[in-house]
């Protein structure tokens, strides 16, 4: 198994709001899941981190993993919306994402990790006229066009 890039302290220290996780072992379980998810989604991520060509990449990975794990701990029951009512007052909270409470990567986070990545064969440009010399020559008719 690959060594973690992110530590439980990275997740807990970046926590905003109340009820920060207090079980580092459980946080590590979710860090491992998040990092496996990233390795599967971005196959060359480990090589890019190791190369050192992108100096902020490791910190970006830690930020993204902390955000992914934080979403799980903020909504462990996978609730889409909750309402609390006390007399005439009520409070509503709606959780974002397709699967609230699950481990997921936002488009913004994915873009942050793909910035500078090179994936051969995934995006390319073809110049259809690169070797074009004009219409074919037809020697039997002595012209560029044949009947």
Strand content: 5-15%
Spatial strand order of the main sheet: 1-2
Straight-line distance between termini = 68 Å
Q: Radius of gyration, rounded?
A: 26 Å
Global morphology = elongated
| pLDDT averaged over residues | 83
Q: How many beta strands in the DSSP annotation?
A: 2
- Helix coverage percent of residues? 25-40%
Ranges with pLDDT <50 over ≥5 residues? Answer: none
The structural class is mainly alpha
- Major sheet characteristics: 2 strands, antiparallel
Order of helices and strands: HHHHEEH
InterPro entries: Mycophage_D29_Gp19
Protein name: Head-to-tail adaptor
What attributes does this structure have?
147 residues, mainly alpha, 8% strand, elongated, Mycophage_D29_Gp19, Head-to-tail adaptor
Structure description:
The chain is 39% helix and 8% strand. The protein is mainly α and 147 residues long. The chain has a domain at 23-78 and 102-118. Strand 1 (81-86) and strand 2 form a beta hairpin. The protein is elongated, with a radius of gyration of 26 Å. The protein starts with 7 loop residues before the first helix and ends in a 33-residue tail after the last helix. The mean pLDDT is 83.
Question: In a nutshell, what does this entry contain?
Answer:
This protein is mainly α. It has a domain at about 25-80 and about 100-120.
SSE topology sketch:
Blueprint (H helix, E strand, L loop, with lengths): L7 H6 L10 H18 L3 H7 L5 H18 L6 E6 L2 E6 L12 H8 L33
Antiparallel strand pairs: 1-2
